[in-house]
Amino acid sequence: MKPSPPLAEVNIHLRAREQDRSLIDQAAELTGTNRSQFMLASALSAAKNVLLDQTTIMADRRAFRQILDWMDTPASAEEEAGMKRLAASRAPWRNG
């Protein structure tokens, strides 16, 4: 038997215009979900994209070479501390 998903732990409330709610309801119906499921899935997808957009580096060949050279240089004490702090943190979109 497949375990049931954990129950939601918090409420998220928002106000919307009637036309926006109708649009969301139409989209939810087309995807076979209810309004809450559709809105949560959409919000989570958007949140992940924002976080990924803020952590992706685009670089030309010269800048990429500089980044690689920087990465090959031994880390300073401050950088070591920062890396330990990041390694101990949890991605906001991960459960548990």
UniProtKB/TrEMBL annotation:
Source domain of life: Bacteria
From the UniProt entry, list the residue stretches annotated as the region Disordered. Answer: 77-96
Keyword set for this entry? DNA-binding, Repressor, Toxin-antitoxin system, Transcription, Transcription regulation
The terms under GO molecular function for this entry are: DNA binding
Pfam annotation, one family: TacA1
* GO BP annotations listed: regulation of DNA-templated transcription
> Per the similarity annotation, which family is this?
Belongs to the TacA antitoxin family.
Q: Which PANTHER family match?
A: COPG FAMILY HELIX-TURN-HELIX PROTEIN-RELATED-RELATED, CYTOPLASMIC PROTEIN
Query: What is the protein name for this chain?
Result: DUF1778 domain-containing protein
Origin species: Methylosinus sporium
